[in-house]
């Protein structure tokens, strides 16, 4: 898995992905699909989800490939409740089998550009789950993304001083998405420039990989509020259970 979350991006990551009530919805959703409260988050990052989930009563641990992101998490985790490790979950083997929920959020699954990496991630999720555990994947809907066109740009304000501009280029043949981004600061004129590549998969493709790794689809929704799945909506939440 590529690691492009350096120190500069770690400092602004929470501005890029603010919590707009999502973790509260997540907590309710997790209580619906699981009777346990032990969560393993793959790609835990700065703890933007893990810290509020921990405060809500879940026992959260996680792994991430980016040391700067985990450093930011530790700065924010004042109670030191969240255990983390620097690991690449698409390569390094996880094996504890005591988690009720394995979470992979915010399009991180699509950061895995090879089918083998996606398969290994499902295997790792299986290894880290109890027999009744569930694997929850949050990602954008490919159908929704493609409705925007093969090339488009977006701009949004992250704060009073910072603005994010993103240029998307989509290759439907390879299902690759290149996102060229710049974060501009009006205070000092500095810019953070980076490129991120994703490879989306359609739900039927994700389900096939899941089955090959020993999972079955429990349900698919268009958000953690439980909205019925609609490919035209931005978000897809796919929840899988271990089939043995």
UniProtKB/TrEMBL annotation:
GO terms for molecular function: methyltransferase activity. Pfam families: Methyltransf_25. Residues 39-133 form the Methyltransferase domain. GO terms for biological process: methylation. SUPFAM superfamilies: S-adenosyl-L-methionine-dependent methyltransferases. The keyword Transferase applies. Keywords: Methyltransferase, Transferase. It comes from the Bacteria. Transmembrane segments: none annotated. This is Methyltransferase domain protein. It comes from Corynebacterium durum F0235. The lineage of its organism: Bacteria, Bacillati, Actinomycetota, Actinomycetes, Mycobacteriales.
